[in-house]
């Protein structure tokens, strides 16, 4: 085997090791994200009634970023001791405060 072939083989092994390491890091991040999602779900089950959780799930389908912001707000309120149990009616009132004015549908007639 020539010196050039040896260098190529060495470089190939280095690239494969880097690729494997990258997969490991990606897997680790994916596991951390799943764990965080599970913790959020546990807290939501503790503080929200089933009806309120269903409303949040519907919001998540339409506006996932907004649903995440609401979850973070609820967790902060819960951890701060300002929230014990959240019914669907209370959740609707909270959403109305967060959203401000209700948005009127905009219909564009051309």
Write out key terms for the chains shown.
mainly alpha; Helicase, Ruva Protein, domain 3
Structural description of this entry:
This protein is mostly helical. The protein has one domain: Orthogonal Bundle (Helicase, Ruva Protein, domain 3), CATH 1.10.8. Helix content is 78%, strand content 0%. Helix 1 packs across helix 3 (64-79) and helix 2 packs parallel to helix 4. The N and C termini lie far apart (73 Å). The mean pLDDT is 85.
What is the fold's blueprint, element by element?
Elements: H1 3-47, H2 50-62, H3 64-79, H4 88-99
Question: Would you kindly provide a brief summary of this structure?
Answer:
By secondary structure, the chain is mainly alpha-helical. It is 78% helix and 0% strand.
């Amino acid at each position: 085997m020539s010196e050039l072939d040896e260098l190529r083989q060495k470089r190939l092994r280095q690239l494969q090791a880097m690729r494997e390491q990258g997969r490991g890091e990606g897997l680790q991040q994916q596991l951390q994200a799943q764990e965080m999602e599970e913790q959020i779900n546990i807290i939501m089950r503790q503080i929200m009634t089933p009806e309120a959780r269903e409303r949040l799930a519907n919001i998540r389908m339409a506006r996932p970023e907004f649903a995440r912001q609401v979850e973070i707000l609820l967790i902060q309120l819960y951890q701060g001791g300002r929230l014990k149990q959240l019914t669907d009616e209370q959740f609707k009132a909270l959403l109305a405060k967060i959203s401000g004015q209700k948005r009127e549908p905009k219909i564009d007639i051309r």
